[in-house]
Amino acid sequence: MPTIDSNALAKFYPCTENAPLGCRKPTETIEKIPGAKFCLECGFPTTLPVQTELRGSLGIYRISELLRSQGIGRLYRGTQTSNGQPIVVKEYLLPKQYFNAVEAQQRRIALGQVAKGNLTTPKSREFRLVSPLETIADPESDRVYLIFSGEIAALPTLKQVLRETGAFSASRVRQVLNQTLQSLHFLHSQPASSDSKAIALTAHGNLGLDSLVISDSDYVYVCDLAYWEQLFVPAPPQALLPEQDLIDLGLVAFALWTGQPINSGSNASLNPREAQHWPQDDLPLKDFLHRLLGLGASFNSAAEARQALIKLPQPDAVGFHENLSSSESLAKPKRKYWLLSLLALPLLGGLLWLLLPRFISNTNAETNNVKPFLPSFADVNGVQAGQYPYTGESLGTWTTVLDKKPVSNRNIKSLLTQPKLDIAAIFNYRTYAPQRSPLDEVLKANAKANFAIATSTQLPEGLLQETIAYDGLLVYVPAYKTQNLPSVLQGKISFTQLQQIFTGQLTNWKQLGSNFPDLPIKPYRPTEPEALRLFQEKVLGNDPNLIAQFNKIEQRSTFDTLRSIAVEEKQTQKVEAGSISFGLLTQTWDQCKIYPLAIAQENLDPVQPLLKETANNTMQPISPSDNLCLEKNSLRINASAFHTATYPLSAPLVIAYPKDNNLPGHTSGPLFANFLKTQDGQYLLQEAGLVPLQTPPKNYTLSSSIMNR
């Protein structure tokens, strides 16, 4: 789906709605203080006041109203003062927070070429591409504008219409596909321009429900191409591929047909990877979309796809043909079809992960994972030779991850030190003593530590972050059957009980109820700073009084606690029977002598972080009656609960790098993230005990470039 994250600006402003482009506060600031340039609440640039005049090379344009935020900018309706003709203005921002003077000027110049794109339209043909009339880019202003003639650019987006009217009929989906494929064919066929200053448009690159607008008569227009939208996102530009446009159009059609916008944040969000989520009223259209998504024989071009669409039989015609056929003549094809389907299921599962992004209902998750990930380290571009030192906690998650050995006898550290063997780009990892913060080191000595990897939800000022996986804490008790705490606790514990236990308010399990054993509670704080900070934030709410009491609890490393619980001697088990502790996911999730408790927050249902695979290949939460050592191979982390943050002790594992683009980590941090956000990188993180952004297929195999090292 679209490469451009419309909420990218939210990282740089403390907007209460976490969406400064669409927030009402900047407009309210203008209404309260005429002439104000920045929002009173978060400092985001205010909207343009009505009657503002913009001077371009082709005329003067007067703003009449703010329409909406769209993509990475704002839309306004206005008129050209010389002739009163309607126009639409799209405003983009170049805030100094993340564009220095040189970068801002580069983007002004690049935007200035947009209107010179030389889209060569044959006479008497209409391809419904919304192209700008001109650009306005004052070198002294942090605002730049695209001017569109007429009112087409102000039409509602497909997302707006879908929200208002619900699912499109199959025939209406076909109309959208037909028109958009025609537009894409025109765009993908643009000849190379002889003008060196003109941009080369070969793909849309940002196709989605928000970049397609529709008229009352169902004419669909294509807008917000990635070439100019991505100029205003502080990230390296993405490659624009025609074949990706076809996949993205398939996802748009799926969303329209099912009536469920992709990544809508709804728990009912549908998923094209699930066969039962597809409508069944137009099977030829369903088969066509499978091809468009690349799940079958992919189309070579938009033109080929459009011709196939035009030739699709109508659903009624299919039904009529089937009625004329005898049941005897249909029996063999049907059996053949189902046999082929069954044989194709493993391949289909792999292809789905290779070609489609995860569709998760997490509005807080960063949206830079909507594209399919590159297969391997060898496919990451933009890598330059050099030394790129980075850091993390000495006893933290990343140190544990690097020591894991998912590939023969080689640990992950050896694979990530030089990800591409043909380029001497060396990522050396070093740690600091527990009393020193890796995040502070990135800010203070960026040459020694370009970036840090940490489990964190709160970063110091001056750092940006990119999520590479999900981490968290497990709260656990011994899985002993003699003093069966998992069963007595019914496999769960509440935040309130955790607070009381780890601040010394509860000292005996009997205090939790008459059915509990008369057994001293022995809480242990781990020694890992990352785990302590996460517990203080999530469970204790960073309350200084609670933390002071928490710091009095006996401390023992996670390794020592797990080792003590695992001892088989009866006397040792008697000593450890009442213990309870917590630890980082990577250090605890696969230890079968402990039982991870489901966590209940306030009035919400408890969420179990571990699942087990059943005999019929479904996943269900573990229960106290399970023997986790016998079922160790079937255990899985509850990925959905971590992605959606419904498991309350989950947190993103991030690469934290400097906001200042003059520091080396500003480039090397996102570059390292690119390696980890390949399919091979995500597989390695999963094998190390993290929750990947995209879950690999069950029988995923690492690329030969890694296996053959």
TrEMBL record:
Keywords: Kinase, Serine/threonine-protein kinase, Signal, Transferase. SUPFAM superfamilies: Periplasmic binding protein-like II, Protein kinase-like (PK-like). Residues 61-421 form the Protein kinase domain. This is Serine/threonine protein kinase. GO terms for molecular function: ATP binding; protein serine/threonine kinase activity. Pfam families: PBP_like_2 (PF12849). PANTHER family: PERIPLASMIC PHOSPHATE BINDING COMPONENT OF PHOSPHATE ABC TRANSPORTER, PHOSPHATE-BINDING PROTEIN PSTS. Coiled coil: none annotated. InterPro entries: Kinase-like_dom_sf, PBP_domain, Phosphate_ABC_transporter, Prot_kinase_dom. It comes from the Bacteria.
